[in-house]
Design brief:
The structure holds 2 protein chains of 2 kinds.
Chain A lengths: L1 E6 L2 E6 L7 H8 L18 E4 L2 E4 L12 E3 L12 H8 L9 H14 L5 H7 L11 H15 L4
Helix pairs in contact in A: 2-5, 3-5
Chain B lengths: L2 E4 L3 H9 L3 E4 L5 H10 L7 E4 L4 H4 L1 E2 L6 E3 L4 H6 L1 H6 L1 H8 L4 H4 L4 H7 L5 H8 L3 E6 L2 E6 H4 E3 L2 E2 L6 E6 L7 E7 L10 E7 L7 E5 L6 E2 L1 H8 L5 H19 L5 H22 L5
Parallel strand pairs in B: 1-3, 2-3
Antiparallel strand pairs in B: 4-5, 5-10, 6-7, 6-10, 8-9, 11-12, 12-13, 13-14
Chain lengths: 158, 285
């Protein structure tokens, strides 16, 4: 049986994928997409967050086969050829990246939120990012970045 | 190496389960951790992993029906965001909103929560207080049982090989005084140390209280329910109920070191939740 799904806009076909393999392992080790990070491996840190049909999920807790027939978006799929995605740009501009390990998951969780709610208040942002841990410094600039990303996406600033 | 089968319909799923070597995956938020632990300790993966998350029978959600039904494959996120669940089964909506992170709530299911039978499962405690019955199917037919009959010990259920939980029914629409409360190490994304689910009716004729996480399996506090049935609504009764709940807790679990912290927490959480449930019915605090 072939595992077929859409990854960052392109169809992927893979054979010999074990049923117990996680989506995280498949992305990092089979497809070489190492932007998705493995932190805790048990669904607590959110470093492995990806979008499955636009919803943020922990790829360490998702079987690779659960993606069959669906669309997966990883951090590698956000930027265009030339430009960063507005959420990525906002993270850079707000200084929300320190070591960067949590950043791909944070950005995807933020994108998933902003896709559903373009103008979230601080409480909503905190709730949406509660499953993404940053151990460098704190969340102040990350929350600021999400607010800035909302403004960029709404065209209120450039 | 496991093979992975995405069940197309219920007869196919039951037939595969009937062969006796498949593990069910719905959201995967518990199973994937078990599979990871198995790999790290060189234990074998199950021969077959059966994905039931796309079965329409398990996705059915009818909270406003005369006999409300919640499909086993319904995710916590759907439960916390569906307006009909918030209206008819607010207890379940509140419990679902306190499970894990958004990532976990968007994949984890109410059926998986019960089948995995972690003592800390928030959905399980909520269903217990609602008096929900699990609908279970196998090649032999259908059966129903209460959550307390289904979950007997940590990670132990009476599910026989070949059985699939289809969903949960509530016998009749529950009264509006529903409250879920939880104590964990922190507010967000925490595993419950205590969780409490309450359903109150205006006459206090059928109060239901389930306390979880501090017991090996879900448990109704029937002595506390009796106390409430016989009392006059108000702060004194809620306080007495809180103390009775703590007594129940220490009677069952004994005075282990953590009881010094947990018993007062049980008292206050019960008292406050009863007050909130009474307020939800329109009563004065």
């Amino acid at each position: 049986m072939e595992l077929i799904f859409k990854l960052n806009g392109e169809e992927v076909r893979l054979s010999q994928v074990p049923g117990e393999e996680s989506l995280l392992t498949l992305l990092r080790e089979r497809l070489g997409l190492t932007g998705t990070k493995e932190g805790c491996g048990v669904g607590e840190c959110g470093a492995c967050s990806v979008l499955l049909d636009g919803k943020v999920v922990n790829s360490c807790l998702t079987a690779a086969w659960q993606a069959a027939g669906r669309e997966v978006t990883t951090i590698e799929g956000l930027a265009g050829d030339e430009d960063l995605h507005p959420v990525q740009r906002a993270f850079v501009e707000a200084g929300a990246v320190q070591c960067g390990f949590c950043t791909p998951g944070m950005i995807l969780a933020a994108k998933s939120l902003l896709d559903q709610n373009p103008d979230p208040d601080e409480e909503v942002i905190k709730n949406a990012l509660a499953g993404n841990l940053c151990r460098c410094t704190g969340y102040h600039d990350i929350i600021r970045a999400v607010r800035r990303a909302g403004k960029l996406l709404r065209g209120e600033t450039s | 190496m496991s093979s992975f089968i995405i069940a197309r319909d219920l007869p196919e799923a039951l037939e595969i389960m009937g062969r006796g070597e498949a593990r069910i995956i719905a959201g995967g938020t518990d199973l994937m951790i078990h599979l990871r632990q198995a790999r790290l300790s060189s234990r074998q993966a199950p021969p077959v992993i059966l994905d039931v998350s796309r079965l329409p029978e398990l996705q059915r959600l009818e909270p406003g029906a005369p006999r409300p039904f919640v499909g086993a494959g319904v995710t916590f996120h759907r439960l916390e965001s569906d307006p009909e669940v918030a209206r008819h089964l607010p207890l379940l909506a509140q419990a679902a909103s306190m499970v894990g992170s958004l990532q976990v709530r968007q994949t984890g299911t109410i059926g998986g929560n019960v089948a995995n039978a972690s003592p800390a499962a928030d959905g399980m405690t909520a269903l217990t207080a609602l008096g929900a019955r699990a609908e279970i199917a196998s090649l032999k037919g259908y059966r129903e049982c209460s959550i307390e009959e289904l979950v007997t010990a940590p990670n132990k259920t009476t599910l026989a090989p070949g059985e699939i939980i289809l969903g949960f029914t509530v016998e009749e629409a529950p009264p509006a005084g529903q409250v879920f409360a939880k104590v964990g190490r922190r507010q967000a994304v925490s595993v419950a140390r205590l969780n409490l689910a309450i359903s109150l009716d205006p006459q206090l004729g059928d109060p239901r209280i389930a306390l979880g996480a501090c017991f090996p399996s879900p448990r109704r506090l029937r002595d506390v329910e009796k106390l409430i049935r016989q009392g006059e609504p108000g702060r004194q009764l809620w306080q007495a109920a809180g103390q009775q709940a703590a007594q129940h807790f220490t009677d069952v679990c004994g005075w282990r070191s953590s009881a010094v912290y947990k018993a007062p927490a049980v008292t206050r959480v019960t008292e406050r939740a009863l007050e909130r449930a009474w307020q939800a019915l329109g009563g004065a605090a």
